[in-house]
Amino acid sequence: MTDSPPNPVAAxxxxxxxxxxxxxxxxxNAHGLQVSITNYGGTITSLLVPDKAGKPGEIVLGFDNVxxxxxxxxxxxxxxxxxxxxxxxxxxAKGKFTLDGKEYTLAQNNGENTLxxxxxxxxxxxxxxxxxxxxEGQTLKLSYLSKDGEEGYPGxxxxxxxxxxxxxxxxxxxxxxTTDKATPVNLTNHAxxxxxxGKDVLGHEVTLAADRYNVVDAGLIPTGELRxxxxxxxxxxxxxxxxxxxxxxxxxxxHNWVLNSxxxxxxxxxxxxxxxxxxxxxxxxxxxxxxxxxxxxxxLKGASGQTYGKHAGFCLExxxxxxxxxxxxxxxxxxxPGQTLHSTTIYKFGVRQ
Length: 353
Ligand code: BGC
Prior knowledge:
With about 350 residues, the chain is mainly β. It has one helix spanning about 70-75, and strands at about 10-15, 20-30, 35-40, 45-50, 55-60, 85, 90, 95-100, 100-105, 115, 130-135, 135-145, 155-165, 170-180, 185, 190, 205-210, 210-215, 220-230, 240, 255-260, 270, 275-285, 285-290, 300, 305-310, 315-320, 335, 340-350. The longest helix is centred in the N-terminal third of the chain and has 6 residues, at about 70-75. Beta-D-glucopyranose (BGC) binds next to strand 24.
């Protein structure tokens, strides 16, 4: 006899535009948490978490069929709901970098820049999926081989991502990768959270363990300056609602905070007062892209018909800093042959009464 939970359940999730059947894997735990992940883009499509009354509710933005992620409106808006992002999360300036004396040119998909991997990043590919269980809970292992030259990046990159829904109410994401040529790698997940289920997230209280943030130019490329947050609307070292100072930040929050390492504190803590839901994010990564859904404009509708307007969700993308391949002073994102990249991020859920 074993009391380990059964493997995640797999169900059809529709067909991609080229006719390939896609699956949806649903992981559950004993406390009513449930996460659904499709092998298309390794995308988290749904995450149900109990509120302070014990009632599970949806806390991420997503669709109930793969067609939602392939519609012309979704492609045009490019919000990357719930997807795995690679090879390089966020922007690489002008889609160019030089490595070991050689200049590489990437697919440009954000003006002159490359965003989230290029035209067909890891969010738009099919991952090989292996549902299972570990000592911590139900798991979904996803693997993908990104071939040498894909989107302009050097080297065959073998990527593995393991999602675990733990017995202590966390969604853990373990990333690993190896390569046969030196290449930049910056992996993350692009889930949009809305812990209250309301039309926007402006009432959520956020704390970030970060004393500095990356200053960016008009194209959202870091200038290289790591500026203290103190006395600015970027100071979330004590709790502030998202809405409190957002009007002082042109366009809204879409910046990379420099995490204070070695504080032992979570990188981020979020509290939603109406439902009591809390989320704590811990990570091995040095940076956190806090993005408040500024570009959502109501053209997309979710699984139960709700309109996703401006600030309908927020992202906490754990990652290295944007444009690191062109910023020698930033922590390196270069993975070399013989090395293995390991990165772990944990989103832990709870309630405050
Ligand atoms: C970026 C935003 C971008 C969004 C959706 C975020 O990670 O920082 O600038 O609009 O992703 O693509």
